[in-house]
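Case 295 in the screening queue. Each case pairs one protein sequence with one candidate compound; here the compound is adenosine-5'-triphosphate. For every case the pipeline is the same: read the inputs, emit a complex structure as tokens, and attach any notable structural observations.

Predict complex for case 295.
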Amino acid sequence: MTMSDLAVEVHALAKAYGGIPAVDGIDLQVQRGECFALLGPNGAGKTTAIEILEGYRARDSGDALVLGHDPGRPTGTWRSRIGIVLQTATDNAELNVHEVVSHFAHYYPSPRDPESVIEAVGLSEKRKTRTRNLSGGQRRRLDVALGIIGRPELLFLDEPTTGFDPEARRDFWELIRRLRADGTTILLTTHYLEEAEHLADRVAVIADGRVVAEGAPSSLGGREAGDAVVSWRTPDGVQTSRTAEPTRLVSELAAQYGGEIPELTVRRPSLEDVYLALVGRPVESPSDQGSVGEL
Ligand code: ATP
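Case 295 output:
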């Protein structure tokens, strides 16, 4: 792989606050055109890592290149090539949506059309509303609009859909898919595992400032090879069985029942199961609470 294939390249990145490590030796490579998600519990170091890459925090040690440039020495031209959606919302209380988006467009050499961006984030009906009168989720959509108005090559999204209702979250996913299809590289943090699963080509799980797992959401932590959990209803209640051969079990059950198996489900470990195991929390799911059935 050549350098130009990488939008972000990080080696042994470290940052401590008052002697306590927040980022403790992270290696990351994000390819151009990829959507990459950072997952991890509160305080894991995701925002610190992202803000170092955005050029807003100084690192203590390690190497970092973002679009081929050291984020520790940000320049205006480099900043105009990246888009940022921070965790804290932007404050332009007295301006309306259209004014804020148009105003930000002027900071960039080849901005997107403000009206199309307002439409893309679903704020057309609110274009004349002062930002202080927007709801929390609408304000977050405005943040996303400001992140993409400059036509960034690389978009940083720190917990972009916090406060979104389910429909707004689906709309946002669609927008991110379109940006990615346009060639925008996306680096996001999220606490919604479903969001990572929908959007990310690859994810890295960070815990205590270190990367503890990395891979495609479908294969993280050996997920695709994990045992399946088969459950079905019997007269005594729901039976659950963990097995590496679900097809064999289902065939045997089908034969036993002589057809339809009541309330049959077959489930692989979800991204959430794998994530919780990686960050050291016990996995609890309804299917684990039933008794394990023997045939
Ligand atoms: P969250 O999911 O809650 O947003 P995070 O993974 O983004 O968490 P960070 O915000 O990077 O985590 O914080 C990592 C650690 O560094 C935490 O223990 C936090 O308290 C500490 N920290 C972050 N910023 C500062 C700061 N400016 N001064 C001192 N400590 C800080």
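Case 295 observations:
- The longest helix spans residues 166-181.
- Residues 283-295 have pLDDT under 50 and may be disordered.
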